[in-house]
Design brief:
Strand content: 15-25%
CATH architecture of the largest domain: 3-Layer(aba) Sandwich
Radius of gyration: 29 Å
Distance between the termini: 102 Å
Number of helices: 15
Helix content: 40-55%
Strand order of the largest sheet: 3-2-1-4-5
Oligomer: single chain
CATH topology of the largest domain: Rossmann fold
Length: about 425
């Protein structure tokens, strides 16, 4: 496919980070495919140095348009709120930080394509990872008519050194030639680290991979307590001070990170069928999900709370597998949203030496009744009701036991023993 067929050039929107891979992608799309390139760089809270410089770099390389979009509030308010409502943890561990940002970036790329008349969207993902699936399924869900180009899956560049040589030959600025041994992805919800020595699941993660969190051994020797206020499941205050959700996430990344909270080291099942060893730093996500779960134990009835556990696993798997814009995931969102109507209150968390512990929770909608729960003199529970309840509750297993279970099995033996006794007496 070559977009330049002797007529006006076709336009392609490129997810652009300013790094080596996407910079080579930008030039490769021009040289090898004949595209006019529109670069879109989204700030979802990553450790970017200067988005303005990234925007300008794309223009200097010949992009016909370049956008640096601050998506942090949108990411927090429209994506992280849904993740928190679902207590989103893939395989009960990973808070989905990369999986959550891809559909947002895809949404903005599709909007740019519509606004500027592009018929193609490109990304810099490899053929082995999850992100190619997340980008492409999101784009297809939002506009199936757009065509997708994945340069890294097509080009004949087999290693970073070959990319660097290609970049130099085609005037692509290369800031450094030394490759970090790790692949890093970060945003408001945390930081993902893979590759290098981490590819050996027996190797302990080196100390230099961690940047958001202190080593627990070096964390302060005193605990810090934080109080997180929630309104219908969404964090709305920290230590009594009202603030936007995005600012609460930022503050907790610092506070919890200083206490060594939020380090994960796991082997996860990738969508493409391989197992991958991943390390994550998720201080704010860890504290907020634990706090949110604690508040739900007060505010959700038992049946809803138990059923929601299965919904949460389905939700996390759908998001991990790139199905953010899918009927199932949106239906699960609706269920989770319905459960959050009364999840309002405050949770107190203790941060200390790598652990965050719930030490208190309160809510104006609490279903916890002290007088019913107490074993003291104020106990309002009717103990005399218990026997009748147990008789009725146990009726199905009582009936089963008598007809098909242990009691039924014992009956023939009892009859035989009675017959033997009667025979002995007669003799």
């Amino acid at each position: 496919m070559n977009a330049n067929k002797g007529q006006a050039k076709e336009k392609v929107v490129l997810a652009y980070s300013g790094g080596l891979d996407t910079s080579v992608c930008l030039k490769w799309l021009q040289v090898e495919k004949g595209f006019d390139v529109i670069a879109v760089c989204g700030n979802v809270g990553q450790d970017e140095s200067d988005l303005a410089a990234i925007k300008q770099k794309a223009l200097d390389m010949g992009a016909i348009a370049s956008f640096a979009v601050d998506m942090r509030e949108e990411y927090a308010n429209e994506f992280l709120t849904l993740a928190l409502a679902a207590n989103g943890l893939y395989e009960n561990s990973y808070p989905l930080l990369s999986a959550l940002s891809r559909p947002l970036l895809s949404k903005h790329m599709v909007e740019a394509a519509h606004a500027l008349g592009a018929h193609y969207i490109a990304h810099g993902c490899t053929g082995k990872g999850n992100d190619q699936v997340r980008f492409e399924t999101s784009i297809k869900a939002l506009d199936p008519t757009l065509e997708i180009v994945a340069p890294v899956r097509e080009w004949d560049l087999h290693c970073r050194e070959e990319e660097i040589e290609w970049a130099k030959a085609h005037g692509v600025p290369v800031a450094a030639t030394k490759k970090s041994p790790y692949s890093i992805d970060d945003n408001l919800w945390g930081r993902a680290i893979e590759c290098g020595v981490l590819e050996d699941p027996w190797a302990e993660p080196p100390a230099d991979i961690w940047t958001l969190t202190a080593d627990a051994a070096d964390a302060p020797d005193h605990a810090e307590y934080v109080e997180i206020g929630f309104e219908q499941g969404v964090p709305c205050s920290l230590n009594g001070e009202d603030m936007p959700f995005v600012d609460i996430v930022k503050a907790l990344n610092v506070k919890a990170g200083a206490h060594g909270i939020g380090r994960l080291d796991m082997v996860e099942n990738r969508l493409v069928g391989v197992k991958s060893r991943e390390c994550y730093e998720v201080p704010a996500a860890k504290v907020l999900i634990d706090a949110h779960k604690a508040l739900e134990t007060l505010c959700l009835d038992g049946a809803t709370q138990h059923y929601k556990l299965g919904v949460e696993q389905q939700w996390a798997t759908a998001v991990y597998q790139g199905m953010w814009f899918s009927p199932l995931k949106m239906a699960l969102d609706s269920f989770c949203a319905a459960t959050q109507q009364y999840v309002t209150g405050t949770v107190k968390m203790k941060l200390y030496k790598g652990s965050c512990t719930v030490t208190g929770r309160k809510s104006p909608y609490s279903l916890y009744d002290f007088n019913l729960a107490s074993y003291g003199a104020d106990d309002a529970f009717n103990h005399e009701s218990a026997k009748g309840f147990i008789d009725l509750y146990g009726l199905p297993v009582t009936t089963w036991s008598a007809m098909q279970g242990p009691a039924a099995d014992a009956a023939p033996q009892a009859d035989q023993a009675a017959d033997e006794t009667a025979a002995a007496n007669a003799a």
